[in-house]
Amino acid sequence: MFSILRPYIFSLDPEVAHDLAIKSLKFNVLPKSIFNVDEEEMLETSLFNEKLPNPIGLAAGFDKSAEVYNSLFKFGYGFVEVGTVTPKKQLGNPKPRVFRLEKDQALINRLGFNNHGSEIIFKRISNNLPDGFLGINIGPNKDTLNKEEDFYSCLKKISPYAGYVTINISSPNTEGLRDFHDQKELEKLLTGINKIKKENNLSKPLVLKLSPDIDDNEISKIIELIIKYRISGIIVSNSTEINRENLSDVKKNERGGLSGQPLRDRSTKLIKKFYSETKGKIQIIGVGGVDSGEAAFEKISAGANAVQLYTGMVFKGPGIVKDIKKDLISILKKENLKKIDEAIGIST
User: Fold this and answer.
1) DSSP string, 187-221
2) Rounded distance, CA 287 to CA 259, Å?
3) Among 1-10, 43-52, 195-204, 224-233, whose mean pLDDT is lowest?
4) What is the mean pLDDT of residues 62-67?
5) How far is the C-alpha of 26 from the C-alpha of 262, rounded, in Å?
6) Which of 109, 159, 160, 225 has the most CB atoms around it within 10 Å of its CB?
7) Residues 230-254: pLDDT tens digits?
8) Which among 307, 327, 311, 289 is positioned nearest to 47, based on CA atoms?
9) What is the pLDDT, as a whole number, of residue 272?
10) What are the residues facing 166 on neighbouring strands?
11) 104 close to 89: Cβ distance less than 8 angstroms
């Protein structure tokens, strides 16, 4: 069905097409059974002590305001992450702000955390409890005077209904956000977050979403702080501001974060570096160019406990999860592995 509709969908502005997708998903009519595959038990795993049917997640950015997560679970995702959620509602950056790079199987976006705000999203989730493992990605408002306080505010508001909470310090579209990769700034933020957790008796796993553009010498410093402040995991990685020189599409120089196939190798190398230094002490979610079973297995064998995708679904449609699950099962059999967990880190 998607292959038939794709020419029409791609004739629309990317953001118009996305809004239509959200509206259609609100009907929640597709039966979950059509996305099941045989022998899926081989893909069962756990993430932050939660049992999952498979390690394939939907990345934050698609369901920004937590409107259709239960419809998305029906596509076969093992987990779904919504957001980025900010304390106050915000419209984001001026349009146009999303660009398809069809020749490169990539997207560039400079959306700027457009979402309905934590108050509306909190009520929405409380009135429609998730049917699966739901991550909630949080960040600061663009015009805030204190980014740390925005993180604390969202954490307190959102935690009760989250399976895990992602601290997003890596979007390239909010000025100054990536400054939190600096050791002093990150320690200050994590100190405050732990204080909020203790004061409010919050026990949900916290995850740090990282930039792919960090230098190698920053990795050990980040790991040190993650372990010190008992952060449960990392997401490697957000979109990149660089890596444009080998792209073909005329839109390649649009400002914003680049995601999809051009990010694949960069994020996988970063996963491997983090895994080799941590050896399972923290859990890793791998993101960037995941659009096939081969790409998912590549990240898992590099050290990821689970993977996420978004751009892949834009180009291949909602059936992508079923295809990845089938491919992963075939790869496991070929590699003589009985469970997906046996593949974690085997290429490092």
Assistant:
1) HHHHHHHHHHHHHTT--S-EEEEE-TT--HHHHHH
2) 9
3) 1-10
4) 98
5) 31
6) 109
7) 999 999 999 999 989 999 999 999 9
8) 307
9) 97
10) 137, 207
11) no
Task: Single out the residue of 108, 85, 76, 134 nearest to residue 296, CA to CA.
Answer: 76
Which domains does the chain carry? Answer: 2-343 (3.20.20.70)
The pLDDT tens digits for 175-187 are: 999 999 999 999 9
Q: What is the DSSP letter of 34?
A: G
Do 90 and 117 form a contact (C-beta atoms < 8 A)?
Answer: yes
Query: Cα separation of 93 and 102, whole Å?
Result: 23
Distance CA 152, CA 321 (A): 34
Q: Which residue has the tokens 């987990």?
A: 79
Q: In what order do the strands lie in the sheet with 257-260?
A: 98-101, 106-109, 257-260
User: What are the CB-based long-range contacts (under 8 Å, 24+) for 34-37?
Assistant: 35/74, 35/75, 35/76, 35/318, 35/319, 35/321, 35/322, 36/76, 36/322, 37/76, 37/322, 37/325, 37/326, 37/329
Measured CA to CA, the distance from residue 190 to residue 180 in angstroms comes to: 10
What's at 60, amino acid-wise?
A
**pTM score of the predicted model:** 0.96
Confidence of residue 209 (pLDDT cuts 50, 70, 90): very high
Tokens for 297? 């297995």
Q: How far apart are CA 256 and CA 59, in angstroms?
A: 17
Host H or E run for residue 15? helix 14-25
Positions marked catalytic: 171
Phi and psi dihedrals of 264, rounded to 5?
-55, -55
Residues 283 and 170: their CA atoms lie apart, in Å, by 18
- State the Rg of the chain over Cα: 19
Residue 319: pLDDT over 80: yes
Residue of 110, 174, 159, 166 whose CA lies nearest to 138: 166
